[in-house]
Amino acid sequence: MSTPTKAVVLAAGLGRRLGLGNAKPLIPVAGKPILFRTLENLAAAGVREAVLVVGHQADEVRLAVGEEFAGMDIGYVESDAYRTTNNAYSLWLAHKHLDQDVYLVEGDVVFDGELLRRLSAADGEIVTAIAPYRREMDGTVVTLDAEGTLSAMLLPAQQEPDSDLTQTYKTVNVHLLRERYLSEEFVPGLESLIAGGGHDAYYELVIAETVEAGRFPVRGVDCGDLRWYEVDDLTDHGAAEYLFRSSDDRLEMLQGMYGGYWRYDLVDHRLLYNLYFPPARLVDQLMDDFREALVHYPMGHRALQMLLGAAIGQPSERLVVANGASELIKILGGLLGRVGLVVPGFNEYEAVFTEQDIHRIHLPSPAFTMDPAAVAEDALRAGVAAVIITSPNNPTAMAVPRADLVTLARLLADGGIRLVVDESFVDFCEPGHSLEPDLAELPGLTVIKSMSKVYGIGGLRLGYLTSADLDFVADVRAALPIWNVNGFAECFLRLLPRYQDAFAASCEQVRRDRDELAARLTELPGLTVYPPDANYVMVGLPQDVSALAVVRRVFAEYDILLKDCGGKSMPDGDRYLRVSCRTPQENRRMVDALAAVLGVAVAAPAGGGAS
């Protein structure tokens, strides 16, 4: 079959869902407008004439593209009704250009040029690019027979809300239409559709009728292994940006997002999860209340404190419930004055205080262990109002022995200094590490905790502060708005007391997985693996190895996301990795990837088990 030398590109769209005023096809993806990439691909595939159907910001498109682009002649057809019509009408306006073999491309699809070459190489009078359906996709789907011919085509209006689309293919919205099919069936069908009032219809209706009639077999070409994305809204745009950027640019993009990694095809060993909680039954109960939690206001502080107190066994008057621990950390930044920050630690504490109000108390490298007498002496000498320490530490994952924290609290209290202990990961320690039972005996002690991490509810954003100093608790509470916790978080707190056994079991499973992960990492030559008490492991790399370089290679070659400690207040932070514990299978794959990047052999950990 011959290669088409002509293309029609539908570029009249408004792009309302993108919230942008410029022409939708000119939206850049990875630094290049979608339309420019499409035209470059067409030119590389042998196209010599491209006809653009324009509408919204038509003059802007004409100015950007011109009459010639990448060696192709560019023609224009302008729609005067793009605001009230759909793509069938736009294509009908260009029907006189459907007079020879053409590529038909929708202007909001960004794709690899190889896709056009695959269409051209396929047999058939009509060939369409398809890819296996994924949950986040919207639009027309198809099914195939054993020969790769479309057996059914379902437009969005034909899909039921509960339809099982897992065995279907999504249309990429790039087609090759041969001259015979155009003249004998497609153009007459398109004209009939418009004559019948189908100005707001999709041209795919004509192709669907072709599939049903069977006179012209419609060939589906699986392009699921190629890069492509249909950009309809900002979520699509973000996915396309990720897909078409270089590996280093994708990594930088992710690091600037601080979350949402689950939307991308990667394994996240960077953020910190409890993958075994909440259990399915709890999630189902949350879903049962979804609408009510969505439309009604949640309760205020006092009732939330009572719900939390019932879940964790603390008097409600000692508690402040917050939209994640980060909300509380921000408040502490305005209440505590000059502080001693035990570092390395959670960077958010360093971010909320001015540099003049921070006195850093360094845990000595390379052991990163705490001497309570030395910390207290340093704090007293610096004249701070409070000392903040994270235990288990972030990033070392090592917990300060409980007795040492009690000693530190008493030493500081003697000097009139408050101790704030961030226990966000304490539930992953062996039971008995938390200082919460000591609050009454240590009035200068405040405990802060992120529930999001240990309970596996990062999206809910729950955290709390607790102290026996009720005046201080009142000051923190006064800094919060009336409604600071959403209705879904309230529902979670109501259900949590029923699931304490399940939570304890989930933490025990995390401990087993973490210990296996640490053991496997220990078997990699040249690494220093710190004994973890949290759900992550800190790894020291050899002297001449950059952690950032390792993170980049593991991401580029294996789609695994790790965290380097270069941004932490610690000596040689760029030689340390923080590795989040996931499932055993994912942990083993990550260790294998790390070994390959470091060029070392993977040995079976003590106790057996192949990697």
TrEMBL record:
Top-rank taxon: Bacteria
Entry keywords, A to Z: Aminotransferase, Pyridoxal phosphate, Transferase
EC number: 2.6.1.-
SUPFAM superfamilies for this protein: Nucleotide-diphospho-sugar transferases, PLP-dependent transferases
Cofactor dependence: pyridoxal 5'-phosphate
Database matches in Pfam families: Aminotran_1_2 (PF00155), NTP_transf_3 (PF12804)
InterPro entries: Aminotransferase_I/II_large (IPR004839), MobA-like_NTP_Trfase (IPR025877), NHTrfase_class1_PyrdxlP-BS (IPR004838), Nucleotide-diphossugar_trans (IPR029044), PyrdxlP-dep_Trfase (IPR015424), PyrdxlP-dep_Trfase_major (IPR015421), PyrdxlP-dep_Trfase_small (IPR015422)
Residue ranges constituting the MobA-like NTP transferase domain according to the UniProt record: 7-131
The keyword Transferase is annotated on this UniProt entry: yes
Aminotransferase class I/classII large domain: residues covered: 301-594
Molecular function terms, GO-annotated: nucleotidyltransferase activity; pyridoxal phosphate binding; transaminase activity
PANTHER family linked to this entry: HISTIDINOL-PHOSPHATE AMINOTRANSFERASE-RELATED (PTHR42885), THREONINE-PHOSPHATE DECARBOXYLASE (PTHR42885:SF1)
Family: Belongs to the class-I pyridoxal-phosphate-dependent aminotransferase family.
Record's protein name: Aminotransferase
Organism: Streptomyces sp. R28
